[in-house]
Every structure is written in structure tokens, then in C-alpha cells.
Amino acid sequence: MGALLSLPLLAVPSIGTLMSFGASCCGAAACSAICHQCGVFKSSMATRIAYAFLLLVNSIISWLMLTPWALKKLEHLTLDYVNISCQGKQCHGYVAVQRVNFALGLFHFLLAVILLGVKSSRDGRASLQNGYWGPKVIVWLALVVMTFFIPETFFQIWGQYIALIGAMLFVLLGLILLVDLAHTWAEYCLEKIENTDSRGWRVLLIGSTLGMFTASFAMTIIMYIFFAQSGCAMNQTAVTINLIVLLVISVISVHPTVQEFNPKAGLAQAAMVAVYCSYLTMSAVSMEPDDQHCNPLIRASGTRTTTIILGAIVTMLTIAYTTTRAATQGIALGGNSSHAYSKIGDEEGEHGLVDQQPSSRREMRAEALRAAVEAGSLPANALDDDDSDDESDDDRGGKDDEKGGTQYNYSLFHVIFLLATMWVATLLTQNIDYEATGVAAVGRTYWASWVKIVSAWVCYGIYSWSLLAPVMMPGRFGN
After folding, report:
1. Of 18, 249, 343, 461, whose CA is between 20 and 30 Å from 65?
2. For residue 325, how many C-alpha atoms fall within 13 Å in the half-sphere facing its CB?
3. How much of the chain, in percent, has pLDDT values that exceed 70?
4. Which is nearest to 408 in space by CA: 332, 301, 308?
């Protein structure tokens, strides 16, 4: 693991040779810490961050395996004594990238199946989600090695069809969640304003709306000046359509008919959608090839590495947000984000009284608390507070926030990560340059540019439908 973490440092041989040993030691120390008592996380957020970090490491390795650059640096580190090969196959290129991401995808698929139906951390399988990080990392690395024993034909079919479909599903899911975030953010601010009459929340809502619209128009002006010059028909069309639709959805969001059926609709949601779609469009035109002389960033010195790093950071943040948001909401499979406290006396003929001798002092206390919660004397989270007493004896510390119910659907969480690996593999391998020997640019293809442009249009369409659906089908959205 330490060797993998040291790969990025090989870019500068003089420094990388000296620092790679330090990275290897840090990697070994990290693995040792993770393996200590299986590294159980009691916070659900810490678990999600850990899985996101694992995806980040996997994506960096995939990016480095696009070209033989990293492998040559690693061979140079061994003074060319070691000739790196993968079972007689190439360790870089299209198939290599598909192998690495397939391994992580298979890892998440297995976890999704194993964790199906887990409702709380009291389930013994929950420890597999939140702990055993040392063994899980070993399993992941073993799966990576095993993929090199699979024939290349399988990955040709997998990458061209199955992974491509999964990547598109991942992009669509991200757009749906973005629109949902826009509505949730605006409605949350309005609720705070109505309940507290706070001037601060008004300033925050109005200020963020104006700021996002300002950023949208600023990006539009920049795109027209630098990327939509004469002869750049594709960029001119994309920027113009984005500007027109931006204005259209803004007008629709404050239309009296829309306001009648959805009073909470407004410019705040439109602003968030507008700034995101404008960013997608700007990212598309700034990452396209420069064969038509429409991308000055490629010709500018010193910006190539910067744009690659910024693009990678934004991509990883988007993936982390999408997976976390999807898992929290429990789309499709049904989440369990709320604590499922059992009620006493629901069955007909039951009186709700404790009529059996508890088998332990802990159960006696739990029975008393449940009765108090049912009677309304205590809030529902009192049961969680009771659990914290048991956790105080745990040497590893930290409060378990999922004993009353999981914060997200475990199986769905891993399905989303499976789709994320397909998106990373598809993004890296579309129109791959087989002659390249240096660091590969991520997403610098017309395919990636058009995916972003079309994604912006689809996002506008989803948001428009969220505004018009209550008007067109009032019976279904009456509540």
C-alpha cells in the first residue's frame, strides 16, 4: 500500500527517490493503524469518508495506469533492475484501467449483497460496513491482482457496454440529486425564516441567490470571450443555449401559476441549477481538444497541470457528494435514515405494560426507556443516549449513531459506488491516446465535453419538470 501511495512522488526523480521511502513508511504505518482492532468506525460519516478515500486512491491509480509513465518511473526507482509486467500483459492502457475499476466495483457489489437488509449497527453484519478495514483493503488489492488473470476480451465488452451504461446512470443520478439539493436548500432556508423570522437567514438566502446568478453570468461572459470566438460553432452553440435556458427557468420559477401550485419555488433553486449547469458548460469548453483553436487553456503555458488537478478534485468531490446524498435519501431501495424505534402495545389487545422479567439489567433499563418514549415523557433519541453508556466501556471510543437505525442504506451505498467506478473507468478510457507516454489528461476529449454539455441540458430539463409537474398533475402533487 505504501508503494501505491508513493507513485505520485515519482514525477520528480530526484525528490521522489528520497521521499518515496517516507511515503512507504507512512503507508505502512497507516495500514498498521487501520488494521488495529480492525479499525471500526462508529460514526457513519467517518465510514463514508473512508470509502470515498478508497475510491480516490483507486481513481488515482487508474489515472496513472493510462500511460506507461508511472511504471517507467517505478522501474527507474529500482535502477531498471525490475521489469514490471502483469502476467505477460500490459500494465497500462484501456484494459488496465478497466481491470482496476472492475476490481473495486466487484468489491462494492459483494458488500452490497452481503449487507442487504441491515437496519442498524446491532446487526452483526454492520461491523463489516464500519470495520475490518485492514482485511477489506487486502481483499480489494487481491481483487485487483485477480483481474489480470481474466482475458482482455471480457474487459473490452465490459468497458464498451456495461460500464458505459453504468456511467450514464451515475451521471443521471447526480443530476437528479443536484435538483433535489436545490429544492431542499431553498425550502430549508424558507422554513428557518418562517419559524424564526431571522434576518440572517434572509440575508443568506438572498445573498446566495444573487451570488450564484452573478457567478453564472460571469462564467457565461468568460466563455464568450475566450472559448466562443469566430469558427468555434460548437462552443458558441453550447454557451448560447445555456444562457437562454438559464433565463427561461428563472422566469418559470417565479411564474404566478407555478407559484400557486408550489409556493416554495423561486429564484434560489433556479440560481443553484444555473450555476451548476454553467459550470458544466464551462468545464466542457475548457477541456475540449484544441484542434479547432478554440481552447486557449491548452496553448497557455503552465495551465495544463492546474486544470488536470482542479478537474480531478471537482470530479472526486462530485462523486463523494453523490454517493453520500443518494445513500442518505435511500433512492430506489428505500433508505432507513430515520431511527426505527419500536412502539409498545401496537398489537390489538396489548396493554403496553412490562409483564415479563427482563433477562438483564440493561434490558430492564431499555424496557423502561421505551415505555417512557411511548408515553411521550422522553424524546425518541433517549434510546440512543442509553446506548452511549454502553459505548463508554469501549476502548476505541466514539458514539455509535446507528444503533437505533442506520443513517443510510448500506446496500444502496455500495451500488452507487459501483456505478461511480464505472463512471471513472469510462471517463478515463474514452478516446484514449495509445501513443501518449507522459501524464494523461483527464476528460480532454470531445466525448467528455459533450457528456457535460448534454448533462447540463438534462439538468435544466429535470428542474423544469419539477416546477411544471405539480401544475400539470395537481392530483398527484396535491400534498
Report:
1. 18
2. 18
3. 60
4. 332
